Amino acid sequence: MTVRVQTFGCRLNILESAVIDGHLRAAGAADTVVVNTCAVTAEAERQARQAIRRVRREHPGARIVVTGCAAQIDPDGYAALPGVDRVVGNHAKLLAETWGQGEAAAPAEVVDIATVRETAGHLIDGFAGPHDRSRAIVEVQNGCDHRCTFCIIPQGRGPSRSVPVGQVVRQVERLVANGYREVVLSGVDLTSYGADLPGRPTLGQMVRRLLRLVPELPRLRLSSLDPAEIDADLWHLIAEEPRLMPHLHLSVQAGDDLVLKRMKRRHLRADVLAVCARARALRPGIAFGADLIAGFPTETDAMFESTVDLVGEAGLTFLHVFPYSERAGTPAARMPSVPKPVRKARAARLRDAGAAALARHLDAATGRRIGVLMEGDGAGRAEDFTPVALAGDAIPGDAIPGDAIPGDAIPGDAMPGDAMPAGTLVVAEVLGHDGARLHARPVAP
Fold first, then answer.
1. Domain annotation covers residue 155
2. In whole angstroms, what is the distance from residue 30 CA to residue 7 CA?
3. Dist CA 123 CA 19 (whole Å)
């Protein structure tokens, strides 16, 4: 072991870990482990602390640096953990000079994140890991100006700030030049993009410009969207732009209006239904993911059932379910709580509802032709983000339908799915599914 960055939490943390790794290697660091923490739930923090203890036990000579949202919020607590040599805040972790300081660095380098007013695009060449050269993450926004009552993340990320369009374009050009076929635009509050930039460009305007300036990019995705804040340009792109993938992940959180109001969300149940209906009318076949919290304080059985019902009514397919987790310093932590066993049971119910929704989605795909971006080991993702297992020899097929994938992206030979390298774009015919992913075979051009 020389340098290792261990990541917990969101896509933004994955990207930032890649930035940290690059800075460490450029500085010639050795025997260093960076734990990039998440603070969204108590479980995320528990896992980070467990990882710190494991690193100290397995690599007693390693220098351990803790960073990320949990470290930003509670630097003294993490600095006090046995074996931790240094704590770095969310602002400092992205600066090259932070990682060139070595042993001379202060034990804790954490500035008040609320004072940070800018964020910059980070020019990286790629990502290490199983999806290398297939899907890349690009930060376009950081921080959040809203104060949902359950959320501690604004204390870890600071105010909303956007990356200028030109910097986003340069990063995407660099990734495409290095072989990436798909980019995910990521942020803490993505739909707030541009409010702090000159001219106040919207997310949709930025995406339109990006796709125009980087025509070589085959596939673009967006990370989590607020249902209350999808702008007019983005709606037009959903309807008209084939390179914007037909998959929206929505920050829903609950399906009951009173719970949503107590969460201080800016949407109601009807807004989620309207967003899904509009998107489906504009882009038939679009799939939806959603974040949902089970057992929010004051949530009754009837309120919870409204959330379960929303999964089917809105046609949500890919669920990220979290049992509510108290975060010290948030208003929800002072509200009357739901017993933890009830939270756990409700989360299990929601996951069951999600599994049933996914099975319906997979059933509907059988017999279709889909575009798949391979991630390696015979696995990939369809345009709507459905997991796909691709195996067997190519089956005879007609010309590629529509203009979803350029013909030169399809392998010319009858190549088994597990031999296709990450980053290969292929058309496949769906044969069935196993309840978790589609099974398909490539279609020969």
1. yes
2. 18
3. 8
